[in-house]
Amino acid sequence: TLRVAILISGGGSNMMALADSMTGDHPARPCLVLSNDPDAGGLTRAQAMGIPVAAVDHRPFGRDRAAFEALMQTHLTDAGADIIALAGFMRVLTPNFVARHAGRMLNIHPSLLPKYKGLNTHARAIEAGDHEAGCSVHEVTPELDDGPILGQARVPVLPGDSAETLAARVLPMEHTLYPLVLRRFAQGDRSPVLLP
Ligand code: GAR
């Protein structure tokens, strides 16, 4: 059975969707939920689901990302993580850390990549007048929000949408797409999935 560490910074709704999916004949199980924010709501939720949790507050490390990542790495090693799933993890990872986990780290991003890497994706899609938006799951490579796309889900942008209403339409698609992609990834299938 493959062991999946889920990295979060916030509420952890994607974490919950992933963890809920890893039952029965699924080839993987959650081994750790790790947050850079000790107050992340997702930590309490993971704990309530019986998943081991840890937090490594990035703030005391200042600009020393390598030292922050070294401490995160000890938790990942202790947990025996085979796969790392970034799920609303809002820290940029160094090329060293990414290289160490090459081919076994996934991320979900709330845009139809390669559009709108970085932050404020929904506001930017609306501002651009896009008629569709969505989310992407991709393999993590050193460039931010880059790397081979493993799956995408599309939703319409509707007249009058705000970043909030669009996010509320995209998020449930994230909860469908990410577990589907993770299951295929754990089975060794990296061909992209397109939803709906
Ligand atoms: C999700 O929409 C995820 O796609 C996004 O943050 C949210 C986390 O929500 N990720 C990023 O913006 C990554 N740069 P969650 O904590 O409820 O899963």
Give the topology.
Blueprint: E1 2-8, H1 13-21, E2 28-35, H2 41-48, E3 53-55, H3 65-79, E4 83-86, H4 95-100, E5 105-109, H5 121-127, E6 132-139, E7 149-156, H6 163-186, E8 193-195
Parallel strand pairs: 1-2, 1-4, 2-3, 4-5, 7-8
Antiparallel strand pairs: 5-6, 6-7
Bound molecules: glycinamide ribonucleotide.
Task: Give an account of the 3D structure.
With 196 residues, this protein is α/β, with parallel strands linked by helices. 35% of the residues lie in helices and 23% in strands. It has six helices and eight strands; from the N terminus they run βαβαβαβαβαββαβ. The chain is globular. The chain starts with a strand and ends with a strand. Glycinamide ribonucleotide binds next to helix 1, strand 5 and helix 6. It is an enzyme of class 2 (transferase). One of its GO terms (biological process) is 'de novo' IMP biosynthetic process.
List the main descriptive attributes of the protein structure presented here.
about 200 residues; alpha/beta; eight-stranded mixed sheet; 8 strands; globular; binds glycinamide ribonucleotide; purine biosynthesis; phosphoribosylglycinamide formyltransferase activity
